[in-house]
């Protein structure tokens, strides 16, 4: 302090600022790659959640919630030790007991673990699950990609029939169409462990002779996870891959028959799909069918809306009995970006039934009670107690698009009455306070009947 006085003479305001800064530390900021979902964005989230839940119910997928935190080894063993997700992108740490744990980067592994741990093999198969929640990857944040992101997904565990794969694709396509986003499915087969081993050797041979043209990442992948090279977005690697052998040409009889069946079912269901021989999805647990759902005709679209496939070995790899399975996961942020781009109109929520307005302290007290009484009788009542002005309160009511308002002022308090205002047209009636519920209900029924008749007329 002494020194600063000598070297500099700060003015009073500056001095004060410095003092405040010392006392109140700056507010901590949002972590990089994280995001708040503010109330104004929630309508998109609620709408997507509603459609996912309805679809899950139609197809008898039941909700499951697994923890966000799992043992690191769960993901290392399922997603794969040599994948980008496990190698570079997991939020992993040691807990206070010294156990290695990770924030879940995806949900299939956690659900397979739950399936084994709760002995669900004894239930009628396949057991169908759906989920919705946050996932974490310590990735380089880019537009529309966050370190905490949200996904919904469907998993059908315990059935090897190709119709399960096909129906899952039909269902997911229908989800996006319902929301209003035309989509196309890309599909491939990565075979089983046996045919993949053979193909991996073929691909390694092909790429080894061209190794010097590959990007640095792919050079490394060549010895550890060759299939991942098929996913590479680098131009040079893509050029080399153009002539690479395709895995679908090297499937054994069983895997080929499975793939052909899936495509037949999709044809039958009139599903538009494109064969993509390079679609391997970059996770170790996939077998046979892999697929991704892309927005149709979206030029330069960088990422799929979602993807999935079969994972017939996963339950066994994690220590359960051999159990075939198939699943899909969709990104919610990615979907909402598409909805905004397409300017999809979300149906507005039903307005409250009534707005309770008040004027004066004693009316305020009574109104507080009235709102609660109405709510308990099944009437959705809105209010705004933070302002005194009646005009302002009624403008809030208009904004909420409520049909009726109840107004309680000093005069009404004395007369034990209340004003019932029809917001359409603005007519007002004085009603006995003790009969407010009956009077309101009567008018609500009347409006409902008019709306119903009106609809009937238009149908004729
Ligand atoms: Zn095979
Ligand atoms: Zn590459």
What does this structure look like?
This protein is an alpha+beta fold and 460 residues long. The protein folds into 2 domains: 39-192 and 252-341, 2-Layer Sandwich (BirA Bifunctional Protein, domain 2), CATH 3.30.930; 354-447, Anticodon-binding domain (Rossmann fold, 3-Layer(aba) Sandwich), CATH 3.40.50.800. It is 42% helix and 19% strand. The chain has 17 helices and 16 strands. The protein has helices spanning 2-7, 12-23, 42-58, 72-78, 84-89, 108-117, 162-179, 193-208, 216-224, 235-241, 253-268, 314-317, 332-341, 361-376, 390-399, 410-415, 436-459, and strands at residues 62-63, 69-71, 92-94, 100-103, 127-136, 148-157, 183-189, 273-275, 287-295, 306-310, 325-331, 354-358, 381-383, 404-408, 417-422, 428-432. An 8-stranded mixed sheet has the order 1-5-6-11-10-9-7-8, with helices on both faces. It has a 5-stranded mixed sheet with strand order 13-12-14-15-16, sandwiched between helices. Strands 2-4-3 form a 3-stranded antiparallel sheet. Helix 3 (42-58) packs antiparallel against helix 7 (162-179) and helix 7 runs parallel beside helix 11. The model is unreliable at 1-10 (pLDDT under 50). The chain binds zinc ion (2 copies). One zinc ion (ZN) is lined by residues 191-192, 194-195, 251-252, 254-255.
Q: N-to-C terminal Cα separation, in Å?
A: 86 Å
Q: Helix amount, in percent?
A: 40-55%
Helix-and-strand structural type: alpha+beta
Percent of residues in β-strands? 15-25%
CATH architecture annotation name of the largest domain: 2-Layer Sandwich
Mean pLDDT: 90
What top-tier CATH class of the largest domain fits best?
Alpha Beta
What ligands are attached or bound here? zinc ion
Query: Can you summarize the main beta sheet?
Result: 8 strands, mixed
- Which residue ranges are poorly predicted, with pLDDT under 50 across at least 5 consecutive positions? 1-10
What gyration radius follows from the Cα positions, in whole Å?
A: 30 Å
